[in-house]
Design a protein that fits this description.
The protein is of the alpha/beta class. It has helices spanning 13-34, 39-44, 46-56, 80-90, 137-150, 169-180, 201-204, 210-216, 229-241, 278-286, 303-312, 335-341, 362-367, 382-394, 441-454, 472-477, 487-490, 495-520, 524-535, 539-542, 545-550; strands spanning 6-7, 58-59, 71-74, 157-162, 186-192, 195-196, 199-200, 220-225, 247-252, 290-293, 318-323, 349-354, 372-376, 398-403, 422-426, 460-464, 482-485. The longest helix is centred in the C-terminal third of the chain and has 26 residues, at 495-520. The protein is globular, with a radius of gyration of 24 Å. Bound molecules: D-xylitol-5-phosphate and zinc ion (ZN).
Length: 552
């Protein structure tokens, strides 16, 4: 029997995103099926638990008690549906078991039950701690971290705590003790979603200044955006460097993140959505979009400043156009420049190689620590492409393939599809930013999307060239989920405003699609009611102002 030991391997960025998306989908299906459960916390902690189980921790789904495993203590037990879904996707038990959530006789109860090999039917493999009454997990973690250290073991302990839970005095007793014992092998992660039970933490029991509190208790404190996987990875790596004290990662999260009407809404702390809403919610979750500014666009060549302003402006990834002056009639920069730019941001680098013979230089882009590397179908044979994807995958980098406007999907690509995370469709002839979108590409994109879906493609379609707010909805409806924007962002004079406008257009396209789905399953009115506060700002563009107004 092959025992899978997960040794903190470098899972590729887009695969990690996809897995965390599957966690949310599985959790909401379980909660809707059970008619009860906590979507709010399951979603606010999804990236935190996902990065730990899919990327950072040493653990083994086949051997839950593996002696060298890192420990994850989920002290905020009510995030159980999200936690179970993470364990299931990680391989601890079949995802189909999520349908038994909270059912009599199921081991997936409202709060996790610690796994013991003797009660395998009552306890959840991968669960280290029976979280029910909250405020206890950090104390338990101290015991485990101390014992590991006394035994000279290298295992690390990760503990997820809540900000409502931080009302518990025991949390602060534990905080003092952990610092006293200098437990550098202990990392607490605070799911700082600013909501507890039926209200906002700062109204009920103010926790701020949170950072100062933990610093005053002699903890190493790191503050991050808690849904940003790159920042989570970076913070966990930094926590591993702490030598003489425990670390707390204060993760600024959003309760219910992923489903817009549940977002930052106390109502959805412990409430299940109606079962009939499930297909629409799944559509929303799988429709996450990424905005990728292309830094060759615009006047000035200061790539560093462009990357910084894109990050400040709310971009998801940075699009890097590498041109060799041979495959395309322009040349830009190569991997040397990317190496110089890598330290500027934790945002993923999306390298678009418009060069001849990419196989010859692929190692340079691996060494430059790109997160996505896309080569053109016109520049490589099937065997080249196979070698390129193998090398990228073995280095935890997402492989992509790009098609010029007149290039069809090559038949040789289909056997490789499970290794491909991005199919980039050029909507201009490559070579320059600021060109006009070629409208004929829309029908091609629809066809490519259909063909890829038929072949079980799980990756992203990336649209590149002439994308702006006027064409974005049509490109979204044609199937794209990554949107490259050069001139629309760097030619706008207001980078933040431009990115907000692109996101607004994505939202309109998404809401239109979800409304169509609600129509199709006969729940339009109910959906409009549930979604009203999200739809009001978009009502004019969606043409539903009167209908929303008439809703009582
Ligand atoms: C063109 C590049 C695109 C381009 C995008 O060959 O691949 O990424 O820079 O810029 P806009 O959005 O201005 O077309
Ligand atoms: Zn490009």
């Amino acid at each position: 029997m092959v025992v899978m030991l997960i040794m903190g391997f470098k899972m590729r960025y887009l695969d990690l995103k996809r897995k965390i998306c599957s966690v949310r989908m599985l959790a909401i299906q379980g909660i809707a099926e059970a008619g009860s459960g906590h979507p709010g916390a399951s979603f606010s902690a999804a990236e935190l638990m996902g990065v730990l189980y899919f990327r950072k921790m040493n653990h083994s789904p086949e051997k839950p008690d593996w002696d060298e495993r890192d420990y994850f203590i989920n002290s905020k037990g009510h995030s159980a549906p999200g936690f179970y879904a993470t364990l299931a996707i990680a391989g601890y038990f079949p995802p189909s078991e999520m349908k038994t959530l909270r059912k009599l006789g199921s081991r997936l109860q409202g709060h996790p039950v610690r796994y013991t090999p003797y009660e395998i039917h009552q306890s959840v493999p991968g669960t280290e701690f029976s979280g029910g009454s909250e405020g206890i997990g950090l104390s338990v973690s101290i015991g485990i971290a101390l014992a590991n250290r006394l035994d000279g073991k290298k295992n690390r302990v990760y503990t997820l705590i809540g900000d409502g839970e931080s009302n518990e005095g025991q949390i602060w007793e534990a905080a003092m003790a952990a610092a006293k014992f200098k437990l550098h092998n202990l990392v607490a992660i605070l799911d700082r979603n600013r909501i507890q039970q039926d209200g906002f933490t700062e109204d009920i029991m103010p926790l701020d200044p949170t950072r100062d509190k933990w610093s005053a208790f002699n903890w190493n404190v790191i503050e991050i955006a808690g849904h940003n996987v790159e920042q989570i990875i970076d913070a966990l790596n930094k926590a591993s460097e702490a030598k003489d004290r425990p670390t707390i990662i204060i993760a600024k999260t959003v309760k219910g993140n992923g489903i817009k009407h549940m977002t930052n809404n106390p109502q959805w702390h412990g409430k299940a959505p109606p079962r009939e809403h499930t297909p629409i919610l799944l559509e929303e979750l799988r429709s996450e979009c990424l905005i990728a500014p292309s830094i060759i666009a615009g006047q000035q060549e200061n790539y560093e400043e462009k990357i910084r302003s894109a990050e400040r402006g709310g971009a998801d990834i940075i699009h890097l156009d590498i041109m060799d002056g041979r495959f395309v009639p322009n040349s830009t920069f190569n991997s040397d420049i990317i190496k110089q730019l890598r330290h500027i941001t934790t945002l993923p680098f999306d390298a678009h190689l418009m060069i001849e013979n990419p196989l010859a230089v692929i190692q340079d882009y691996i060494d430059a620590r790109c997160d996505i590397v896309t080569v053109h179908a016109e520049t490589c044979s099937e065997s080249d492409f196979g070698q390129i994807t193998d090398r990228l995958l073995s280095n935890g980098i997402s492989p992509g393939i790009a098609l010029n406007p007149s290039t069809e999907l090559p038949n040789w690509l289909f056997p490789h599809l499970r290794d491909v995370d991005v199919v980039l469709i050029m909507s201009v002839n490559p070579g320059f930013a600021g060109q006009k979108f070629i409208p004929e590409v829309l029908s091609k994109m629809r066809l490519v999307n259909q063909k890829l879906t038929e072949h079980g493609f799980l990756g992203y379609i990336e649209a590149d060239g002439g994308i702006d707010a006027t064409i974005l909805q049509a490109v979204y409806e044609a199937g794209a989920r990554i949107f490259v924007a050069g001139n629309a962002v760097y030619g706008s004079g207001d980078i933040h405003g431009a990115i907000i406008q692109l996101r607004y257009k994505v939202n309109v396209a998404l809401e239109r699609k979800l409304l169509e789905q609600a129509n199709a399953i006969g729940i339009r009115r109910d959906w409009l009611k549930t979604r009203k506060h999200i739809l009001i700002p978009l009502a004019n563009e969606l043409g539903i102002e009167e209908e929303l107004h008439a809703l009582k």
